[in-house]
Amino acid sequence: MITYCLERDTLLFSLKMALVVGTLLAVINHGQALLTGHFTPGELLPACLTYCVPFAVSMYSQVQGKRQRDLSPTKSSVPSERREIETAQYEKLE
Q1: What percentage of the chain has pLDDT greater than the value 70?
Q2: DSSP for 48-89, written as a single string
Q3: Which helix (H) or strand (E) holds 7?
Q4: Contacts of 63 by beta carbon, 8 Å cutoff, 6+ apart
Q5: Which of 23, 52, 77, 92 is 20 to 30 A from 12 via CA?
């Protein structure tokens, strides 16, 4: 699982998701305090945690999807067969 978590594409996607969803949640939860200037240091930790939740959810779902893909017994045969069929169809058109 750690190997999947440390893959570059998994990390980047999770960070992007956390940035987008976390910002939206932060605005919903803390927007009024930010706009009125009443944002206190006590609200800093909950605001930071707002970004951790979507990061963790995104990371978990990607890791589970990759594990399921890699444990599937037909993972390598289906795409290569499909590619061979598409190549044969393309060659017939030429």
Answers
A1: 81
A2: HHHHHHHHHHHHHHHHHHHHHHHH-TTTTHHHHHHHHHHHHH
A3: none
A4: 1, 4, 5, 10
A5: 77
